[in-house]
Amino acid sequence: MLTLNHFLILSFILFSIGVAGVLLRRNIIIVLMSLELIFNSVNISLAAFAYYLQSITGTVFVVFNITVAAAEVAIGLAILVAVYRTRKTVYVEELKDMRY
Amino acid sequence: MEQIFFYIFAIVAVASAIAVISVRNPVHSAMYLIVCFLQVAAIFILLRSPFLAAVQVFIYVGAVMVLFLFAVMVLDIGKESFGEHMHSQAIPAGITVLGLLAVVGWLISKGKITVPLGNYTEEVLTKNTEVVGKSLYTQFIFPFEVVSLLLLIALVGAIVLVMKEKGKGAGSTRS
Q1: Mean pLDDT within A33-37
Q2: What is the pTM of this model?
Q3: Which of B80, B109, B124, B152: CA 20 to 30 A from A90?
Q4: Among partner residues B46, B67, B132, which is closest to A60 by beta-carbon distance?
């Protein structure tokens, strides 16, 4: 029998992997992909709560979440292309013009 | 039976997620991310939400990953060498992730469900798509409209961000 904890633990493991990717990688495209991993893990936990609490709100929220994630990816990649045009780099350590 | 499938999907999802953040080539990373998204879609089916699974496959695997691969291709980002793909902040990052692991693990093990259950039982959810569609167009109509506006803004914003500045050249094809 699958319980809520199974899905929560899976979602949490994926979330940790995503956070590790955001913090550890230098390539900004991989950082954006890790953000998508984080979005997905949150979606899993929302859908699991919706199923185990027998409520539809979580499912509807996942739909909104996916929409926001798609908008985020479009804007993020557009910013990435603009940055690459002016700076000629995609490594987060070299994008430090706004650091104090 | 269901548990066996859950473990298969979960293990493949976690393994491909680890591959996403550890391989060198961004294109391989994107491919592993597609595998991870498909496993998540399968997990949505285990949660009796075939609508979410379809949306996941269409939007994430179809649209988002194509955008990612397109960006990788346009920018022509070469392979990172393995030795330098870690930050100088690797140790604080590791400590942060481990702290998160401890706190959320404790919360998951201690948490109890105290809210009353809703009225969407498994029999109602067999018509999942119909139920979601009805509540999306009645109860959640205002957030639905807001989200559509957000998508429009994101579309216009993405076009404006990658447009060439005016005055530099007449055509957008000029580099």
Answers
A1: 93
A2: 0.86
A3: B152
A4: B132
